[in-house]
Amino acid sequence: xxxxxxxxxxxxxxxxxxxxxxxxxxxxxxxxxxxxxxxxxxxxxxxxxxxxxxxxxxxxxxxxxxxxxxxxxxxxxxxxxxxxxxxxxxxxxxxxxxxxxxxxxxxxxxxxxxxxxxxxxxxxxxxxxxxxxxxxxxxxxxxxxxxxxxxxxxxxxxxxxxxxxxxxxxxxxxxxxxxxxxxxxxxxxxxxxxxxxxxxxxxxxxxxxxxxxxxxxxxxxxxxxxxxxxxxxxxxxxxxxxxxxxxxxxxxxxxxxxxxxxxxxxxxxxxxxxxxxxxxxxxxxxxxxxxxxxxxxxxxxxxxxxxxxxxxxxxxxxxxxxxxxxxxxxxxxxxxxxxxxxxxxxxxxxxxxxxxxxxxxxxxxxxxxxxxxxxxxxxx
Length: 380
Hints:
Layout lengths: L14 E16 L5 E9 L2 E7 L16 E11 L2 E12 L15 H14 L3 H11 L2 H9 L13 H19 L5 H10 L4 H4 E4 L2 E4 L1 H6 L1 H13 L7 H12 L16 H26 L46 H9 L11 H16 L3
Parallel strand pairs: 3-5
Antiparallel strand pairs: 1-2, 1-4, 2-3, 4-5, 6-7
Helix pairs in contact: 1-4, 4-5, 4-10, 5-9, 5-10, 8-9, 10-11
């Protein structure tokens, strides 16, 4: 089966005949008149779209379909609340198309980012932190998941390779701090950067063509899961200093910066303060840049309102100088940055804020949104 239309290309009144999409949501509901219908969300590499299957179409639905399946959709694109949605007439599960074709993948070179981070591991001088990092990196299963997993479901870095990209970007963002503040412990800061979101390997999973939050991810969330993960590694290292362990744990526990953002403790080490700031910057810039790239084709001066960052963005000049040559933060060419990605780094360096309250902590927001959806789902 060949895909003919991407989500971003769909037009109002367009007819679809057995068009393949990833099934992101498939929920049976009851209308006020107590008639059954299905709430559906479909997606591909270019985006997502809401869909409905009304009562009369239910006999034509494969009701055994599951989130993560690839489904062939027959129906029509209509407008609802000024947004397109598909009225589904038929839904069939298909197995002759690879789920990977529907997953968004980082534009950065994952192999190069992995090499860059391995070089940072090799520079680590603290013997215990070096053993901790090596113990993780030398485990093929851990390393492969780290390179390929997302950093979120949908808010920031929510795509294949999103986790390593987030960590790589944070490491780049940490370099000016290390240059300016000589008393920072580089090894502790890098270790915190590397492991701060390691709980995402347990919190999230890729099922078919969909990123999902696991049961344990919903019940425990990524900060406690990350702490347990790192504690398991530390227990394998003889004579690991208790104070150093406490510092590593503190880096993980405090990385969201504030209690109201989901951290059980605020940063009380300089390295933890830096970690929380660059985590917030990396996540926020990822959202902002992706939002502009999605909205730019509208031709409007400002984007639509971004619900997590709580603002619109001026986008008119975003592509004003696409041929500009960039260098990495330390002045040398960055081998992990492709020409298509240089816009991201220009945006990072041109963006600054002195008020941490301005930017929403999106890990906490994503988890809260997921819990909200769980509550809604429990009503049906």
